[in-house]
Backbone:
């Protein structure tokens, strides 16, 4: 079985940032491919993990619709800033809450 792709085929991609992804995305656009939407590789992995966890917990294929919703959120975020998920993940991992977070509801460093 072959896959027929022509200049009218619309493409959704993942991992379109970074050196390699940018190179191949640019080559595809130069060739005339219609890129419809895409997310970064790290967001695609996050989407996959959340979807698999939801499926394993619920044991229902309806939970796979979560992947479509999450992909839509990722596309909207990547339209605003292609590295939005990477920046958010870095902020969460490197900026932990301080001890007085419950008091101020923010990361203040003085009481």
Residues:
């Amino acid at each position: 079985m072959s896959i027929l792709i022509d200049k009218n085929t619309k493409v959704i991609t993942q991992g379109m940032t970074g050196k390699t992804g940018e190179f191949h995305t640019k080559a595809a656009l130069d060739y005339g491919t219609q890129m419809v939407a895409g997310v970064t590789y790290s967001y695609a992995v996050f989407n996959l993990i959340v979807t698999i966890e939801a499926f394993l917990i619920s044991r229902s294929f309806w939970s796979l619709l979560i992947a479509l919703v999450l992909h839509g959120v990722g596309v909207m975020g990547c339209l605003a800033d292609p590295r939005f998920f990477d920046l958010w993940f870095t902020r969460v991992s490197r900026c932990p809450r301080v001890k007085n977070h419950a008091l101020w509801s923010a990361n203040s460093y003085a009481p």
Observations:
- The chain has a mean pLDDT of 76.
- The radius of gyration is 19 Å.
- The chain is about 55% helix and 10% strand.
